């Protein structure tokens, strides 16, 4: 194992890196140089990055080091190398969103809001990360930019659509990353790559300056190797933004202290937490590893009940229909004029989406409110709900079918069976990776009430504290 | 309800819970023209397969009788 070296070869978390930089035990320039070296060594195989912004990262690191030399107080992500899914605008790069034609497009003239905020917090941008084209997929099998391979088994996918985000963090090619999640695109790569992921409440973080996919369901959020890093990044990036009218969470209510407390105290530090494990639909679509992970977490968190949600398949269907309709509409002109240059793995799904009856879309939007009302009623009784993030561990590259207890389904549209019903109503979720008997990771969703990221993050930290979670340094070769 | 997702993913004449038997090839031909596409035969076949897939997944949603008072949530605020 390599990783950020402090003399003992330990892979460090972002909060630890910042602490070392503040104390002068390592420089930001050294952290960035080490990350770039690992990237050069490993990413030829993994293909998690589409663009490397080495000079920018080194320049940003130098500024941090100069600030320290001047005796200035350093910000909360000082010197931390990070990367973003290539649908976030990065000044000087074309925003690809995984697309083919976009490579020849104009470079962005302004950073996305979250990139601006990460920069202001001292983080150093190492590059842009691979994804399923247009964010429509769960495998990051991208025909132009290549397949992002799983750091734990290169014959398997990293998940998607933010596959580069999961792989780069798992392989320690950056300390954290920023991705997007419409139907599971943060939670699925977290599960397949064995890292932590936060899909905030809808509107929890600004999407300003990111390429949309489905305006009504798109979320953005971080990947990291521990819950505390997720919390710190979430705190730093939070805040209203005129560039995203759907962003509703103001800055100011930090969640990191609760996470630190939970890690120190373990599950005993979560007294009175009311937890239920989601069954029926979720069990029917779970393979053995997913089921076992869900039950393990439920037991560890002292789940009092098993809970059956009503009309979960309809919720998943609603997300499916809204996604197909909105993305098909968004890319209709491209499909009409440049079909041959679009991603073969999803252009027909998108085109079909643009043909769906309006009545289906409206039915989905109306049902969305009903399903949210149901979920809010459950959160009167519970603080946290538990479900697997994916039906199985990482699938093999090119795998066409999933065989699950409820039946055989096509792989690419079905990996999100567990995640789609939850993001459909915008609930905050932390994906927590666990080891499986076969050695690969699989994640469980810790689902909280709207606006209660703190509850899910604290529970994730408690699971880390009791040693149940996947060793997130294991992907660094 | 869940089993319907895996059980209706082949054949061009789909039985949608909401609309009875649908000839998705005819539908795709008509609506793609209305939407400004000019699909060749191979594209049409692939799009028909996708419409069948979406239709199968959508069935439990379309089967629901929603109360009249239930509003759409196009700009969503949890």
Automatic annotation (TrEMBL), chain A:
Name the record gives this protein: AtzE family amidohydrolase
InterPro entries given in the database record? Amidase, Amidase_dom, AS_sf, Carboxybiuret_hydro_AtzE
Report the residue ranges that make up the Amidase domain in this protein. 30-454
Q: Where is the signal peptide?
A: none
Top-level taxon of the source organism: Bacteria
Q: Which Pfam families match?
A: Amidase (PF01425)
State the organism named in the record.
Viridibacterium curvum
TrEMBL record, chain B:
Q: Name one Pfam family in it.
A: AtzG-like
The record, for InterPro entries, names:
AtzG-like
Name of the protein described by the UniProt record? DUF4089 domain-containing protein
Q: Give the originating organism.
A: Viridibacterium curvum
